[in-house]
Specification:
Helices cover 0% and strands 51% of the residues. The chain contains no helices and eleven strands. The radius of gyration is 13 Å and the shape is globular.
Length: 119
């Protein structure tokens, strides 16, 4: 059973930084591409960033490109999202997911981690 547990969210000021983590279990983490997605209040789910299984290739939504950096530690079964130059529009509940072809598997166990950007 895929389990993904997010942490690291909180309150940040505009221009500030946060680092999110996602602890994965129940599958062979190193064999799968992973992604981060977010849902802002009253809006749908937005894909944010992804990373190949070998930690070599990363990709980003235009809204976060140049500000966010995704990474992974396959030895620790952990996914990260370093968020810099935060904006109020980055406020959302952030989720990690296992990529299965063209779909995202959000697993069980995690409820996302809330990021609030406000002065």
């Amino acid at each position: 059973q895929v389990q993904l547990v997010e942490s690291g969210g909180g309150l940040a000021q505009p221009g500030g930084s946060l680092r999110l983590s996602c602890a994965a279990s129940g599958f062979t983490f190193s064999n799968h591409a992973m992604s981060w997605a977010r849902q802002a209040p009253g809006k749908g789910l937005e894909w944010v960033s992804g990373i190949y299984s070998d930690d070599f290739y990363t990709y980003y939504a235009d809204s976060v490109k140049g500000r966010f950096a995704i990474s992974r530690d396959n030895a620790k079964n952990t996914l990260y999202l370093q968020m810099n130059s935060l904006k109020p529009e980055d406020t959302a509940l952030y989720y990690c997911a296992k990529e299965d072809g063209t779909t995202l598997d959000f697993g069980s166990g995690g409820q996302g981690t809330q990021v609030t950007v406000s002065s």
